[in-house]
Amino acid sequence: MKNDLKSIKLIGELAAFVFKAGGNEFDVSFKEKNEEIEITIKSKLKDITPGQLETLKGLYTPRQSEVEDYYWELAGESDNYQELTLVGMMIDRAEYSYENGLLKITVYRHK
Domain of life, per the record (predicted)? Predict the structure, then answer.
């Protein structure tokens, strides 16, 4: 159950980032595999700023399992982009791209 709640928080944080970046329509994909969970969000964004793209590097924050139970409860508690650093602490790897106005973010979390 706790992993389900963490997945919901991750989806919420990624959706909040896209919404704040100007996305008014986005698609979310959730795949639960044997060893990991994969979450992908895609959105057409007209005017994403270089600063917003830079913020996505927060997803590359190394996972910190020892403090994860504390941090996942903090996710969604503020209105700033630093939440992606918390997301980074809860996932094992991330990929993102922005091409031709399409932002795609995929995060992976081992079970």
Answer: Bacteria
